[in-house]
Amino acid sequence: MAEQAIPTPGQSPTPDHIGRYQLKGELGRGAMGVVYLASDPAIGRPLAIKTIRIRDIDDPARQQKLRERLFREARSAGVLSHPNIVTIYDTDEDDGVAYIAMALVNGPTLDRALSGRKPIPGQQMFHLLRQCAAALDYAHTRGVVHRDVKPGNIMIDEDGSVKIADFGIAKSMTPGNTTETRSVTGTPGYMSPEQVQGRSLDGRSDQFSLAVIAYEMLTGERPFQGEHLSTVVYRIVAEQPIESHRLNPTLTPQIDQVLRRALAKTPAGRYPTCTAFIEALSIACAESRGWAPLAANASRSLPTSFAEPAHEERGIAPPPPPPGRPRLGLNPPQRTRRHSRSPLFPILAGIVVALGLTSVFAWQAGLFPALGAFLTQMVSRLPIPASASPATPPAPAPAAAPAPDSPADPAAAPAGATGVPATDTAKPSPIPELRADPGAAAAPAPAATATTAAKPRPQDVWVTSNPPGARVSIDDDPLTVCTSPCMLHGTPGVHHLTYSLAGFKNEYREIRVGEAAMDAPTVALRLPAGTLMLTTNPSGATVAIDGKPVPGTVTPAQIALPPGTHSVTVQRGGRSQTQQVQIEESPVYLRFTLGP
Fold first, then answer.
1. Domain 17-103 matches domain 110-286 at the CATH topology level
2. Which positions ≥6 away from 194 have C-beta within 8 Å?
């Protein structure tokens, strides 16, 4: 049986009943109501009663609006009959308290499970997420959007099954001020960008919330956090979360790509369904050896180095991993270099900000040309260490960049401006004193060209087939093969997909990949078939194939048949003939003579 909450001082005692239901104790308490453990005396069934104190609202018009919306949304949730959705039994009002009677779940919420010291194992994690996705997709096909998907509304029954609660209640219970909205709808960190902006919602809003939960289960941290509500809302709408593999080193960039697509700022950038998202995440994890979820806040104790320099750069050996937490096969120097920053980074950042403000004032005063040359010389003299240099050379300034359709002109820019290494024949720099150290040898220019630096980023391409299980490749590259439904990656442009499945004909499709993730249309695989070209003399005979009549078919006829041996029977005017024929993918011609 579910745990009963012990009343604390100041709480009112549990009433004996509400409506026809007998109340046994409290299961939970919120800002506007209480959830009770109750019993239906008519059939002796235990259940949960969620109450909303309508009488505590002073405005009668607002009381009526909240009451109508509550009952309307409760009816919408009540029509959902799914094993992973909490069943709604009844809704009514008693003495100024509106209530909803629902099935009792004998188990904790996912929120409590996530707050434990140990993470949820990977297999169990996907068991829970798949059930959540199936329930949400079921509701979406019936026009119901949950709007408040969060761990506190996901319950885990004693048999391990998931039960999603409070379908539609969050929206119906949203009053007009911000304080009550937060107390009713739960943690804002699980809302989608379109939800916090007050836009229209569909099922992809619930997918965003489910992706927040998946991110939290994998990393131990929510992707959007802040001390103030405004900070959280801003990050949801405008900022990308920290890469998941930076918080959990056992994860891979492929896993992070799946999470980021489901956390896209616009619904169009996400997966078509919640199930498609979870399956893509499952495939990415299956292809990543050694991955494991983290417990809540566990990433804060990992030996990462986001703000300190790499040990190799400081000339000392890296410390050994802490007891009980192996490095899981990762290369410590690579991970440290990826996230380390030079101790000069804060100084350089301050200088850049100061220079930017100075430039603004100089521009307003008309001194920008002279000051710009001076600042350029000063910046070039800064002793920037190699560790603080970006991995990719910055793009040239707009004034020095060639036109998009014209080749770079080495004579029009300083040596190396186009990304080509300087040579003895290259034109010398017009400002030789800009070197940081005139006595030191010139550092070699990066070998990458400007074209290489601007190489288009591969985009996710979600492919599906009917039936599933087809091997799909992009541009016939054997290194890109996956089993549908699955995800491929293609750079912007035209690509060719090949679908193959034993017993079916190969299918070929052309797709155009843009600048965002996309879903390729589902491909219906066809059984291989040949064509029987059948004629009789006289014509007008009925046809039977393998003893079964072909309705509505008389000779001459063109009949599609699967490859193999078939028995063909024609009949007209009391005369009939039967003949065996071998069907192949090329047309086969067969003629019968039935007499005068």
1. no
2. 200, 201, 205, 266, 267
